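Q: Here's a chain of 377 amino acids. Please give me its 3D structure as tokens.
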Amino acid sequence: MTSLFKRIIMSILSFINLIISKDKDKIVIYGRSMLNDNAEAIIDYLLLNNFQKKYQIYLLIKNTVQHPYKKDVNVVSGIAKTIFLTLRAKYIFHTHGMSLCSHKPYRGQIIFNLWHGTPLKAIGAMIGHIVHPETDSFFLCSSPYVAEINKACFKIKDEQVYIGSNPRNDYLFKIEDVKNIMGWSNYSKVVVFMPTFRKSKAVDRLDAGKEFPILNELNISEVNKKLKEKNVLLVIKPHPYQDNIQFLQKHYSNISIIYNENIREKGVKLYVLLANTDALITDFSSVYFDYLLTNKPIGFAVDDMISYGKNRGYTVDDPIKIMPGMHIQTVDELIDFVDSVIKGNDDYLECRNNINKLFNVSNIPNASQKLIEFLGI
């Protein structure tokens, strides 16, 4: 879709939105291509607190996307119905923009951009994309520091900034027997590896010179062997946008590759799963800002940090300073990190706490509640 065409459509829809009345009892969650954790957390909160008895709750999503809602939520897939509901509903939540349905909020309508995490990798206006801040009433920022980053990325104004925790972070405080549910109870430790994407046909991007950090087809079997000796499971969850990686299609005894659908089939939320792991390895993904709330060790795969910076770039001048954990560049260092988790050695506790204060304004599980109360729903 060309930028000019999108702007024309947005102008037409904005004009219609100006004259059409709003239904104060309609709440819309705009998902379309993906049901993001923040959007799902909002729906779960609304249902858990019986808001469906007063409001009509709609999930706008493609009919090919998996979701757990079979009652109390009206699931809509057609484009005509989707546009109609985004023009009629008083409350709209989204996490990735509203694509063809983008319009300015009028007549008391509230469009809330939950986004999908704190950006460390450059995004939006920082990489030359055209942004439309006027289509959001509010934009979620997890701290005043993050608000400044989002202003640079999305050109939002002070009056649009909402300071609060990501709704998905409420799941990080849930203690469940995830290891048993997922079949991981026989391992002494479970370390999850969640990098961002590097190559993606879905969003037409190539952000680094390699398809996956640290691991590759030549070394993954040796890593698996060492993990087996230590009775540790490394759970790899590729980014949803990452193109398929051949060596991650194979079976390993102590490396488990999982995707969103695998987690959902078990009835587990991704962030509940994260909360019940022993440590995280990531790279430039926003997941680590959230994982800070668990106060568990984090390792950072930075072997392609320079090339990633040249291709994609970062939202801060020196990202290494805000990565509070072991910086991993080799397989041996990855194993060293695993050993530190096994032994309970945690040299980065104070550093994590300092970065957490900078990026997370809240350390308690009330993100969805505070947000809904703020909007007066």
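Q: Can you summarize the key feature?
A: The radius of gyration is 21 Å.
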